[in-house]
User: Fold these one by one.
Assistant:
Number 1:
Amino acid sequence: MNKLITLALAAMALLFTPLTRADDVSEALKRFQAAEATAPFFANAYGYAIFPKVGKGGMGIGGAYGKGKVYRGGELTGTTKLAQVSFGLQLGGQAYSQIIFFQNADAYEEFTSGNFEFGAQASAVALTAGASAEAGSKGTSAGAGESQAENSYSGGMAVFTMAIGGLMYEAAINGQSFSFKPIN
């Protein structure tokens, strides 16, 4: 039974293994910039990390993986990888884009200091392309306006996701870990 689960997870991971190309990053940025909820963040954030395609799959035990790029003041500063393990009721696979905004230099430094992790309590705002989101991390609004964007950060970071495709049922506990490699 364990071999079957391992084989199924490996197959799902291969199906959703992301490749990061410059075009993918540009397209993901355009989609997030078009979302009304993220506009104030692009205008005021110290920097951001963007993952154009994160592949996620699970059957009881699940995982996700993605590669991305990190920017400070609009300039590319490095590359990053996202890894996630989840436990609980889950079945399926999906792909999504994710962006993490850094409110200030401290949040940026924390993320880029090496290996950074979001605990199971961290939450992300799920966006639909072209739709206005009303929810934010920790339950606050992420709508348009500078003061609302300032209040939507949690621990100096705000996380947004946008579905690309797939179908996944999930009631699981998970956390994300990130690595950072500066551009030399």
Number 2:
Amino acid sequence: MSRTIEHPALQPLKAQFPDIQFFVGEFRDMITVVVPREQIVRVCTFLRDDPNLRYDMLAEINSVDYLGYPNAKHRFAVNYGLTSIPHNNRLWLKVFLDPAHDTAPGSEWNKFRDEEVVEKGDPGLKLDSVCCLWPGAEWMEREVYDMMGIIFVGHPDLRRILTWNGFGNYPLRKDYPMRGVGERENYKVITREGA
């Protein structure tokens, strides 16, 4: 038996964006709204600026690889955890992404350096940055880029944060081998004297 999901942001979202079909889910009292990739900045701007909502804090950005997940229709998702401090509400936004090219380790589409990834990277994995709305998104988006290969267009400093520029792989993708692709075996040890 289905029931109606209620949340203070749902009706204002539907009223403000009648042209967008939102999908809404609930898990353990947390509401998730699926937003089309092209609309993420518009929707986030509204949620932040509307005086009745005021989602003024971006608490988290993370990503999921659905490779091999039963009945998954999309490969990747980016999740945004929003908090309205004045109204003590939380809301999750989810954007699905599907790569246009091979994502396997060693693929030519993984070999771009940070300074060329926005221009040459996989167009299916490009998503507008929300750093213009929440400056704290800068490092969170960099981590999602470094670990999963999601390219945030408009990011002020999109570069890897945990691996090195030109690493060529994305370690949290499910097609990345558990032992890596030779990084440990070929890792150059730098001593204090040689640094």
